[in-house]
Amino acid sequence: MDLMKGEFTYRQEILELLRQGNKIQAIKLYRSLTQSGLKESKEAIEQLESEI
Questions:
Q1: What sign has the CA pseudo-torsion 17, 4, 31, 47?
Q2: CA distance 52 to 34
Q3: Which residue numbers in the chain have pLDDT < 70?
Q4: Gap between the Cα atoms of 22 and 14, Å rounded
Q5: Which pLDDT score is estimated for 1?
Q6: Which range of residues forms the domain containing residue 20?
Q7: Less Cβ around it within 10 Å: N or C end of the chain?
Q8: Radius of gyration of the chain (CA)
Q9: pTM assigned to the model
Q10: Count of domains in the chain?
Q11: What is the per-residue burial (b if ≥16 Cβ within 10 Å, else e) of 34-46?
Q12: 36 and 44 in contact (C-beta within 8 Å)?
């Protein structure tokens, strides 16, 4: 699952967590949705974080 190119609902939920300062929760949610490793998840969340 690529949250960068779809999955609008999950993307919005992750962005909301980031806006609230909950980066760790955003990473955990991303990992649970994508089954990605920690490093990949952290990088994806940091990319999203740079958009806000």
A1: negative
A2: 21
A3: 1-8
A4: 9
A5: 45
A6: 3-50
A7: C
A8: 9
A9: 0.80
A10: 1
A11: bebeeeebbebbe
A12: yes
Cβ partners under 8 Å of residue 24, min gap 6: none
CB–CB of 46/18 below 8 Å? no
Tokens, residue 33: 């949705």
Look at residues 33, 42, 37 and name the one whose alpha carbon lies nearest to residue 1: 33
* Structure tokens given for 6: 């779809």
Q: Alpha carbon of 13 to those of 16, 23, 45: distances in Å?
A: 5, 12, 12
Q: Which two tokens stand for residue 39?
A: 């490093």
- From the number of C-beta atoms within 10 Å of its C-beta (0-12, 13-18, 19+), residue 21 rates as exposed
Token duo for residue 14: 């992750």
Burial of 12 (0-12, 13-18, 19+ CB in 10 A): exposed
